[in-house]
Design brief:
With about 550 residues, this protein is of the alpha/beta class. The protein has 16 helices and 20 strands. The longest helix has 19 residues, at about 480-500.
Length: about 550
């Protein structure tokens, strides 16, 4: 009825390098991708928003899209060639570096992801769910197919929780040279999550929605709801037959809630399993953990030697970090071209952030988190300062102050020349944060520079109009598709700026913090790892409070 482990592929390998994998098992570290620790980087601050490597713009209609605005990684950090080449495998078979047999069987096993059930959550939550779904699909050797609802079943009149760019409208020209008149929605324009994210072909395997003759959206959505972990501890797989080719499809249908529940309660255990094989013969079996992890890594874009390193990692944090670094390099999260176009306009024309100089970033998440997930951490913070009344529950503020985020710079070397640090602040509470900054000492003769210990800061805030609300699902205009789209663009712009900063200060209680961290990870050079170096590089981050390591997205 279902599978608890990845379906074995039909690939055969001459050897898996078991000896190498066992050697790598001893490696279990984390490194900070910092200028003082990584030899190939200079000692100075040098990470700016714009990639230092030239990238070719991508055509989109009559305009060209700047790739610096299409992903959370800089373009040079994405290798688009990972899934294009073939290699010769053992036994005369063709081994694909994709990690699965690239033939008619590629679509036989599918994870059907229905994102609408989670569409009323924020950007970070929805995107992290998408990444978890990709982890499950690649681990279980399934094509990940995104299924959006038809317009008649969509929760949003504009057919997407992310609002409507100009392309979402169907228009006609009333008179030559006039303004196009809107006459309805563009039925061919992507809906739902697909309006935001460009789902990669290497993940979907370019497979269509299975069994379209016998299963409509409502049928798949009912099967999604049936995957309730409290009732069914193992996700149920449904087998159906495709009328167009007669092939059977084995499908697991899940939405955002199911992805999170089954990841934590079912798949994670197998993903972390690194049980050593009892013998060489056992290691070569398709069901061995060594071989399954090897093929999982290939499906995430790893080269064979990187897949062996991955299979040898024992520490659970390193397993998640290495897998996340694979996904980032493979370009798993690229935004649609209209998103890139409008984010570029927003950043270049409306923010005051210079894009060609180093900058740091601070993310201050308050809002609804203060009444739920973050409340315990806020109480802990004030309790440690002796300023929380256990009897009345009173404390100076119901949030962690901005000065605490600035204290993350205490062990950062001050600029010898007295140059200020440029810091971008992304927050859902800008008015209060600005008041806190205004109360700090200022540089004599320059009120724009804030002094804190030996540091000088020049803060840049998001220019987004506060009255529209910050969360995609909050604010008086949350139902207006244009203003919803404006909030969407502003949020993606903030995410890009945070992720590409020189140093990031935030916390992992927020989905944003976990998402930003995922795309600040990088695999170390394999040769260096073999010489004892640490496998995972992390661009410099400071955790203001809460958990110091978030684990998977």
């Amino acid at each position: 009825f279902t599978t608890t482990r990845p379906r074995p592929s039909r690939l055969r390998y001459a050897t898996l390098g078991i000896g190498l994998a066992l050697v790598i098992c001893a490696i279990s570290y984390t490194i900070i991708w910092d200028h003082g620790l990584v030899a190939q980087l200079s000692s100075g601050r040098q990470l700016a928003y714009l990639d230092t490597y030239r990238t070719s713009p991508l055509p989109y209609g009559r305009i060209m899209i700047n790739q610096n605005y299409q992903a959370l990684l800089q373009p040079s950090g994405i290798d688009s060639s990972l899934f294009r080449t073939k290699q010769q495998g053992g036994g005369g078979d063709m081994m694909y570096d994709k990690g699965y047999a690239d033939d008619d069987s590629a679509c036989d096993n599918a994870l059907l992801f229905l994102p609408q059930s989670f569409a009323h959550n924020g950007h970070g939550s929805q995107l992290n769910n998408y990444l978890l779904a990709a982890m499950i699909a690649t681990f279980t050797n399934r094509a990940m197919i995104v299924l959006e609802p038809p317009a008649s079943l969509n929760d949003f009149k504009s057919n997407s929780q992310f609002g409507c760019p100009s392309e979402a409208w169907k228009t006609v020209m009333v008179r030559a040279g006039g303004v196009p008149k809107r006459i309805g929605w563009n039925a061919d324009f992507p809906a739902g999550l697909s309006r935001l994210v460009k789902h990669p072909a290497w993940l979907s395997r370019q497979c269509p929605v299975p069994c379209q003759e016998s299963h409509g959206y409502e049928d798949w959505d009912e099967l999604r709801r049936a995957n309730n972990i409290t009732l069914v501890p193992t996700p149920q797989e449904v087998t159906c037959t495709n009328a167009n080719n007669g092939r059977q499809s084995n499908v697991i249908a899940m939405g955002g809630r199911q992805i999170r529940d089954y990841f934590a309660g079912h798949y994670k255990e197998y993903m972390l399993d690194r049980s050593p094989p009892a013998s060489l013969e056992a290691a070569m079996k398709s069901s061995s953990t060594l071989k399954m992890n090897f093929e999982w890594a290939l499906r995430l874009g790893a080269a064979p030697h990187e897949a062996r390193i991955f299979g040898g990692l024992q520490d659970r944090h390193e397993i998640w970090d290495y897998a996340s670094a694979f996904m980032g390099r493979a370009g798993i999260l690229r935004f649609q071209p209209w998103i890139a176009r409008d984010v570029e306009e927003y950043i270049t024309q409306h923010t005051e952030l210079p894009l060609d100089v180093p900058y740091d970033a601070i993310h201050v998440r308050r809002g609804d988190k203060l009444e739920s997930d973050a409340k315990h951490h806020v109480i802990t913070y004030w309790s440690r300062l002796g300023m929380y009344n256990n009897e009345t529950g009173s404390m100076p503020r119901d949030y962690i102050p901005f000065t605490h985020y600035l204290s993350m710079f205490d062990d950062v070397e001050c600029n010898a020349e007295g140059e200020p640090r440029l810091v971008y602040v992304a927050t859902d509470d800008p008015t209060e944060v600005q008041k806190e900054i205004n109360a700090l000492p200022k540089e004599e003769g320059n009120p724009l520079l804030t002094k804190y210990l030996c540091h000088k800061f020049q803060f840049v805030f998001s220019p987004f109009e506060q009255s529209l609300g910050f969360h995609i699902e909050t604010g008086p205009s949350k139902g207006d598709c244009e203003e919803r789209y404006t909030r969407n663009v502003a949020s993606i712009a903030d995410l890009m700026i945070l992720t590409k900063s020189d140093m990031f200060v935030g916390e992992y209680n927020s989905n944003w913090g976990r998402l930003v961290r995922t795309f600040r990870l990088k695999m170390n050079d394999s040769a260096k790892i073999m010489n004892g170096a640490r496998p995972v590089l992390e661009r410099r981050m400071k955790v203001a409070w809460g958990h110091q390591h978030p684990g998977p997205p």
